Amino acid sequence: MDNQKEKILMHHKNVLEWVTSLESISEEQWRRPIDEGKWSVAEIIGHFIPWDRFVLESRIPYFKIGKEMPPGPDPDELNHQAAKESRKRSKHETIEAFILTRQKLHKAILTVDDQEWHREITIGKSKITIHDYFNNLAKHDEHHMKQINELI
Questions:
Q1: pTM of structure
Q2: Where are the beta strands (DSSP E) in 4-145?
Q3: Among 87, 101, 118, 152, which residue's Cβ finds the most Cβ atoms within 10 Å?
Q4: Average pLDDT, consecutive stretches of 10 residues, N- to C-terminus, the chain (152 residues)
């Protein structure tokens, strides 16, 4: 397996374990904003779910056929809706939804051929390798993980 692909897969495994561990934080910690005017842990974890679905449905299938990517959703609107839904769901429901979706994403990444991992793709007007695309998503995860770890 490609070394870079393996690192991304390990990242997803670590994130799954880390999010599972959030079951043990208090409801107050789960719902408390990470800072004034910022999201709560619930909203942060909840916003990963629709983005992971988007990658599953509107990115990975196009990686495999080598066609131009469809445009992405409006990030502000998607994040707003995800945060709103996360405020309504229980901690367990949000964590469970995250885990199920991230596991599907992990499995889908496995299906991307190693030979394709460093192929350049076009998203809008940008060109990026498949590896760099997933690496950027991993950095985004890590950014939010650090925020939450500092809170709890």
A1: 0.92
A2: 120-123, 126-129
A3: 101
A4: 91 97 96 93 97 95 78 94 96 97 96 88 87 96 95 86
